[in-house]
Amino acid sequence: MAACPFRPCVTTRLLVDASIIGYTACMLSYIFFDHTADIGVEIFGRTKKDLFAHAAFALFDIMIQDTGNKGKANRKTGERVKIRTVNGVDVEDLLINFLRELLYLFNGTGWVVDHCEIMECRNTRLVVKLLVEPYNKNKHSINTEIKAITYHGLSVGRIKNGWKARVILDV
Question: How far is CA 61 from CA 11, 20, 31, 40, in A?
């Protein structure tokens, strides 16, 4: 099962051409690409499960900064596990629907995803186990407000060393 503990092993906030970087023992989870007025993100994974887990990480890494200010409360006290099943007509639609579900969890219900484990990943169905915690202004600060996940410029496919997706986030 692919899991993303939301701590990438490589700093990924780079504006570079991914084809130049190549891959090492630790694949990049995502990079930015230039896009007028919105945020373009290329997401990478060795497997399709990794790709979806890295997409979840990228979304929350862009939106939320964990300030580390946990106060007196134990970090684990507010955390909960949520299982989500997402469907799509194809893998591209599945990725968009997955990211939209995560965006709704934050914007609609106030949950911050702390960990993502992909339990099942098919071309039209995804089952994911999420460790979430309530948004806390003392612990989290908002980096960037994401309004929507768009189909514009969307692509998902196999590459030499795994999988790659291009997504544009409406800010």
Answer: 11, 23, 11, 14
Q: What are the tens digits of pLDDT across the range 77-114?
A: 578 999 999 999 999 999 999 999 999 999 999 999 99
pLDDT recorded at residue 77:
59
Query: In whole angstroms, what is the distance from residue 129 CA to residue 9 CA?
Result: 21
SS3 of the chain: the string is: CEEECCCCCCCCCCECCHHHHCCCCCCCCEEEECCCCCEEEEEEECCHHHHHHHHHHHHHHHHEEECCCCCCCCHHHHCEEEEEEEECCCHHHHHHHHHHHHHHHHHCCCEEEEEEEEEEECCCEEEEEEEEEECCCCCEEECCCCCEEEEEEEEEEEECCEEEEEEEEEC
Cα 10 to Cα 13, 18, 29, 59, 67, distances in angstroms = 9, 13, 8, 16, 20
Phi, psi dihedral angles at 53 (to 5 degrees): -65, -40
**Count of CB atoms situated within 10 Å of the CB of 27:** 19
